[in-house]
Amino acid sequence: MYPFIEYQGEQLCYSIITDRRLKHFYIKVDPIKGVIVKAPSSNKTYIHNLVMQKAAWIFAKMRAASERTTVQSLFENEGKVLYLGEPILLHVNKTPESFYKEKTIPLVTRLVTEWSFLMGVKPTHISFRKAKRRWGSCSHTNELSFNLSLAQLPLECVTYIVIHELSHIEHKHHQKAFWNCVSEFMPEYKICEKILKNYSPSLS
Q1: Residue 121 above 70 pLDDT?
Q2: CB 13 within 8 A of CB 2
Q3: Distance CA 6, CA 37 (A)
Q4: Residue 172 shares a structural domain with residue 108
Q5: Which residue, 170, 171, 177, 174, is CA-closest to 193?
Q6: Distance in angstroms (rounded) separating the CA atoms of residues 94 and 97
Q7: pLDDT for 149
Q8: Most exposed: 23, 161, 169, 198, by fewest CB within 10 Å?
Q9: Dmax (CA) of the chain
């Protein structure tokens, strides 16, 4: 049985991952795995009190995640999908997966070509896949991978994801130099990050 707390009449279960290499305690709200506490020790009393202290923040995160517009819910309830931030009716012969494969790959490929030239960087490979939690990634060998559901986002957010991953070719971290690079090519990137919180990367 998972440990839990009681907060404002609701029960909140959480799991604990102990890693003695850690210096601090971390709480993560994962849409798939739930609330996870990563801890340098297995001090259950301390962890319980920490979760209690952060309960309001945890429930706020959980509510925000549940209010996201998801492709599956929109399709099941209205027969629509999101395309560049707007709900549209899906053709009767298509599935959301086939629709996004058709729309995302050429859109993102074009943006990568344009922005890699402007930024003076070059990915070694570009691939597309379904992912539950990530919009994109850049490997240590500069291979870029993008979520097939990217075409659901407003165009400026798709562009931001492309610039973000291209910036990782030069900066394999999220430190100041990386964000300076992103900001140089998209000064309004923080607005896009806020917009992204309203969407789910998962098609299901």
Answers
A1: yes
A2: yes
A3: 16
A4: yes
A5: 174
A6: 8
A7: 95
A8: 23
A9: 55
How far apart, in whole angstroms, are the C-alpha atoms of residue 16 and residue 2?
9
- Return the amino acid letter for 15: S
Query: Does residue 138 contact residue 165 with C-beta atoms inside 8 Å?
Result: yes
Last residue of a domain, one of 15, 45, 66: 66
Q: What domain range is 46 assigned to?
A: 4-66
Do both 47 and 88 map to the same domain? no
Among 38, 66, 94, give the residue marking a domain's end: 66
pTM of the model: 0.69
Taking CA atoms, 22 is separated from 25, 27, 83, 130, 190, in Å, by: 8, 13, 41, 31, 29
DSSP of 64-87: HHHTSB-HHHHHHHHSEEEETTEE
Question: For the segment 42-79, what is each residue's pLDDT rounded down to a tens digit?
Answer: 899 999 999 999 999 888 877 766 656 678 778 877 88
**Long-range Cβ contacts of 72-78 (<8 Å, 24+ apart):** 72/96, 72/202, 72/203, 72/204
